[in-house]
Amino acid sequence: MSKIHSAFDKGKAFIPFITCGDPDIETTEAVVREAVRNGADIIELGIPFSDPTAEGVVIQSANYRALKGGITTAKIFDMVRNLRRDIDIPLVFMTYANVVFSYGAEKFMSDCRDSEIDGLILPDVPFEEKEEFSPFCKKYGVDLISMIAPTSEGRIAMIAREAEGFLYVVSSLGVTGVRSEIKTDLAAIIEAVRKNSGIPCAVGFGISTPEQARKMSEIADGVIVGSAIVRMIAEHGKDSACYVGEYVRAMKEAMR
Amino acid sequence: MTNKAGRFGVHGGQYIPETLMNAVIELERAYDTFRDDPEFVAELSSLLNEYAGRPSRLYYARRMTESLGGAKIYLKREDLNHTGAHKINNVLGQALLAKRMGKSRLIAETGAGQHGVATATAAALMGMSCVVFMGAEDMRRQALNVYRMRLLGAEVVQVDSGTGTLKDAVSQAFREWTSRIDDTHYCLGSVMGPHPFPTIVRDFQAVISREARAQVLEREGRLPDAVIACVGGGSNAIGSFWHFIGDDGVKLIGCEAAGRGVDTFETAATIATGRLGIFHGMKSYFCQDESGQIAPVYSISAGLDYPGIGPEHAYLHDTGRAEYVPVTDEEAVNAFEYLSRTEGIIPAIESAHALSHAMRIAPEMGHGKIIVVTISGRGDKDCASIARYRGENIDE
To answer: What is the sign, positive or negative, of the torsion defined by CA atoms of A220, A226, A227, A233?
Structure first.
């Protein structure tokens, strides 16, 4: 069982998402440490891309800011190696296919292993295209994390059976971003997963409040929050770490 | 040429979010069902002929031929289609398909505005609602087409993200499709994006070369020596090439927008300056930096101002069956003015890129040779921006 899978053993998992390099890489590192100190179970680290087609405006803007600030994949690997001196929880990368493809899929996964990155989420790589990357993921022990959407229907079993780490259950149609209401019948989707696999299910897209996190954690094994945290970092800049820390603690408490 | 997974050699594929997978699968099934359905085919060809004005003329450009003093030049007049460009060929096909799929709403991206106008037109004709995404920069330089789309009843949404050009409009249209799939068909305007779009759009545009091949055979009793078309995503080019691909003696030449030159950063020439990557649903060649970030490309032509190229063109380049050459802003503007003066035809600035290359090679090819150049659209929309390029400010 992978380290990611085990992170779900001690209760419901809270998974914050952070865009690396926004506003700078030092802040990202500080935010990660605070999130871990306050109970984050897995951290999702976004490697910026110039054209993030699955993101809403909040994370799009964070990507542009980070790239303008000169962030690169190599600098992010350096930060992860720093973090790994004292951070033990699973870390996963979230980025777009071209970032990994351009770096070289094998070199990317090999560097993931060396810096102890546990998993990879590529929102523009569906089940049908995962062979592009999965052989290298397997070779270097990186979980390639699959997604299930409200529109997946007949595809759920196929995806769940080959899922690694955890299954990223997309709560709503559309792109990332805070939503006041989530209407998808997630319980039914997660039940369909459970029939086919013992993989933990974490729900993401649109979640921002402790109340939403509590509700989601009743049906899922974990909750992913991106835009709400990225927005907080956009607001507080270099001083974000303590705000994100407080937020993570509040979300974690709501899920107990 | 495409296999089941929509691959053209290594290019193509379906690199899209899981949310859209069932939508493209449904589209592929619908297309497989209706592409050879006699009723569908009859309805489409009736629309193409009666509404869009096909077949388009293959015009012998006598004065151009004489002034260049070499190969005989024929112009495939897609500019004479209803809405003024080749885009209508694809849009009528996709709109009919969308109706068969029970969709009531079309969304589209547009660069120069020609595809947006065509989509708005088809939506008006078929009683569908229509939303067109257009980069902020393109809305400025193609203001006339923005007005046309709104006049036709479409909503035009300004896209401010990124460089505010075609690639950002495509990204935003994909985002919109992800949020509303049930009643909405994404009417993609070029031979790009995830499978099955490159195949569907190519098939609907192949009418260009089906006609041109028969027309040139009838006029000259033989095939042309070269077929030239401009390439952004590459829909008019693939349409112009398709029925000539098996004719080994016919050179196929795609003209990319070099902007201020392929040795500058202000270029959109993908084959000349790009490398293999994955973006907008497909594996193909893209202009990008060393970290895989998509480059902010530039061309005077909003329709060619795109950092990628359709996967089938990438494949034709790999195999050497087609050749891709860069043409700068300056060369294209010269060709734009040249055709206006010489033949009384104002071509779209996109098509002027193809013309420019014909002007380059016709004198070298000598008498007795034949070139077919696709005039993919008309240039009314470009007059204000070309005037600006020449330092003259005119009110539109």
So the answer is: positive
Is B292 an interface residue toward A (CB < 8 Å)?
A: yes
Mean pLDDT of A166-188: 91
Q: pLDDT per residue over A84-129, tens digit each?
A: 999 999 999 999 999 999 999 999 999 999 999 999 999 999 999 9
The two tokens of residue B264 are 């500058």
What average pLDDT does range A162-182 have in this prediction? 92
B174 near A CB under 8 A: yes
Give the count of beta carbons closer than 10 Å to the beta carbon of residue B43: 16
Mean pLDDT of chain A: 96
Q: Which CATH class is domain B54-84+206-389?
A: alpha beta
Contact A51 B294 (CB under 8 A): yes
Q: Please check whether residue B28 is in contact with residue B97, taking contact to mean a CB–CB distance below 8 angstroms.
A: no
Q: How far apart are CA A128 and CA A121, in angstroms?
A: 15
| Best mutation target, A20, A47, A49, A50, to test chain B (most B CBs within 10 A) | A50
Domain, as residue range, for A41: 11-146+210-254
Q: Is A130 on the interface with B (CB under 8 A)?
A: no
- Best mutation target among B7, B11, B15 (most A Cβ atoms within 10 Å) is B15
CA-nearest of A22, A99, A110 to B290 is: A99
- Please name the residues in contact with A8: beta carbons below 8 A apart, sequence gap of 6 or more: A41, A166, A200, A221, A222
Helix ranges, B295-345 (H): 311-319, 329-343
Q: Which residue of B has its CA nearest to A50?
A: B293
Which stretches of chain B score pLDDT less than 50? 1-2
Query: What confidence score (pLDDT) does residue B4 get?
Result: 60
C-beta atoms of B15 and A129 within 8 A: yes
Q: Which residues of B are catalytic?
A: 87, 109, 376
Question: What CATH number labels B20-48+86-201?
Answer: 3.40.50.1100
Are B5 and A128 inside 8 Å of each other by CB?
yes
Residue A12 to chain B, least CA–CA distance (Å): 25
**Burial status of residue B340 (CB atoms within 10 A of its CB: 0-12, 13-18, 19 or more):** middle
Q: Where are the domains of chain B?
A: 20-48+86-201, 54-84+206-389
